[in-house]
Specification:
A hairpin with a 5-residue loop joins β9 (251-258) and β10 (264-271). The protein folds into 2 domains: 3-57, no CATH class; 72-271, Vaccinia Virus protein VP39 (Rossmann fold, 3-Layer(aba) Sandwich), CATH 3.40.50. The protein has 275 residues and is of the alpha/beta class. It has 11 helices and 10 strands. The longest helix is centred in the first third of the chain and has 15 residues, at 42-56. The chain has helices at residues 3-9, 14-25, 29-35, 42-56, 61-65, 88-98, 116-124, 137-150, 200-203, 211-220, 239-248; strands at residues 67-70, 73-76, 106-110, 129-134, 155-160, 163-164, 173-178, 224-233, 251-258, 264-271. Helices cover 38% and strands 21% of the residues. It binds S-adenosylmethionine (SAM). Residues 82, 84, 88, 110-114, 116-117, 134-136, 139, 160-161, 179-181, 201-202 line the site of S-adenosylmethionine (SAM). S-adenosylmethionine binds at residues 82, 84, 88, 110-114, 116-117, 134-136, 139, 160-161, 179-181, 201-202.
Length: 275
């Protein structure tokens, strides 16, 4: 059987079939095109079929290959962590564009998952001190692995929200950033597509989707510098509710920004000046 025939019979879409062939064989795109009508070497057949079967059962490509690109860097991605999303790059862009690269800022990424936010910020802004935490020990191991592989000097801690096994530092933070679980418990998306394979605790608060924001707004005040910033990623329809939560905890200068699909995605707020 040729690569072309395997691809035609695979029931995968063309792009995914090509990705799987390249992954199984190690061929470049150019080599695959040049050998498309040649017989598949027998050593590749079992792997190709196994990867095809996993994909046809719905397993996300990122978990099948164990990696996902974020901000042009490869991150190890296993079923212990949320698959990094392009929307989260918007949160990174906001922070990179609005905070001084030359200052030594302290940043805490709460609910770091694979570590994409913390590691990207550290690599883009080496002057900044970046800390990251998660309640999931398994996720934290992946984040630590990513920071080693990508050479990012991030300090990691285990614990629920701000309650860590041991404190990172006695200092307070200039920026607290989080992309917390924000899907409502009964949202049908949880039973669709890639989300079926992702850790539930990375996706939902098992309530109305706002619990994490309530905790972050209430507790972040204790860990932020005077006039420090809380930077939050959230769902498309949550901006107004999150703004109200932040106002309730006396944050100021609350602004929501749209992502590249023109959807409300990031809300930033500043710790109020002491009156
Ligand atoms: C939406 S994922 C975000 C992961 C990563 N920051 C990203 O943007 O790809 C939410 C993360 O919050 C973590 N999380 C859930 N509950 C938590 C808690 N009580 N304390 C700290 N982290 C929590 C999950 O384990 C998960 O890694």
């Amino acid at each position: 059987m040729t690569f072309y025939e395997w691809r035609q019979n695979s029931q995968l879409d063309l792009i995914e079939a090509n990705i799987i062939i390249k992954q199984a064989t190690g061929y470049s795109s150019a080599r695959l095109i040049s050998q498309l009508h040649e017989s598949i070497p027998s050593l590749y057949i079992d792997t190709l079929n196994e990867l095809r079967d996993r994909r046809l059962k719905g397993e996300p490509i990122a978990y099948i290959f164990g990696t996902q690109e974020f901000y042009s860097r490869p991150f190890v991605t296993t079923p212990d962590v949320l698959i990094p999303r392009p929307e989260t790059e918007h949160l990174i862009d906001y922070i990179l564009q609005n905070f001084d690269a030359s200052e030594t800022l302290n940043i805490w990424d709460v609910g770091t998952g694979s570590g994409v936010i913390a590691i990207t910020l550290k690599l883009e802004r080496p002057n900044w001190n970046v800390f990251a935490s998660d309640v999931s020990e398994a996720a934290l191991k992946i984040a630590q692995k990513n920071s080693r592989l990508l050479g990012a000097d991030v300090i990691f801690g285990l614990g629920s929200w701000f309650d860590l096994e041991s404190r990172f530092t006695d200092d307070t933070f200039d920026i607290i950033v989080s992309n917390p679980p924000y899907i409502k418990k009964d949202d049908y998306h949880l039973t669709q597509g890639d989300l079926r394979f992702e850790p539930q605790m990375a996706l939902t608060d098992f309530n109305d989707g706002l619990d994490a924001f309530r905790i972050l707004a209430r507790e972040a005040i204790n860990f932020l510098n005077p006039q420090g910033y809380l930077c939050l990623e959230h769902g498309y329809d949550q901006a107004r509710k999150i703004q109200a939560i932040l106002e309730n905890y006396l944050f100021e200068e609350i602004q929501t920004y749209k992502d590249y699909s023109n959807i409300d995605r990031v809300t930033i707020a500043r710790k109020a000046k002491k009156k």
